[in-house]
Amino acid sequence: MQDEPDLREDDPSLSARARALIRIGTSGIAREDPEALARFFHPDFRFHAPDGSTLSREELWAYFAACRAAFDDFAVTRQQIFSDGGPHVAARTTFSALFVRPFTASPVGTVMPHGRPVFYKINKVFRYVPDGSLMEEWAQYDSRLFLERLGVALTLTLNKI
What we know:
Number of domains: 1
CATH architecture: Roll
Radius of gyration: 16 Å
GO biological process, one term: polyketide metabolic process
Strand order of the largest sheet: 2-1-6-5-4-3
Strand content: 25-35%
Number of helices: 4
Protein name: SnoaL-like polyketide cyclase
Pfam families: SnoaL
CATH class: Alpha Beta
Order of helices and strands: HHEEHEEEEH
Distance between the termini: 41 Å
């Protein structure tokens, strides 16, 4: 499934911001820690999806809740984190789990489980504000591949001009 190792929050060679980014994925998102999420995400946070849509922090948290509801052993891990020391950080992230209950947050509606492991990789850019909270996040991932891994059969229809 993975071709590179996960970063660890206890790695002393990583910056405090990188360790916090790893920790929010493993505990705040994957294990649902509302207090940690509220501390990490600025109240005016915005998530910018690959399709151009934007979510508030509460809408993004609802997506995470749908993941936890559908997937056993849900994990959010970081494989690479890049920073120039300024307000922006980039990361390569993996969401992985066992698909065992209906997933209600897919872009094509509810998807029924198949009982197999699934994962998808995301490239993200984060923007922090001076108080250290996360203000914006831009994400790029292959939605088609993720849907196929969920068991969705996609078909292409060409319209004649």
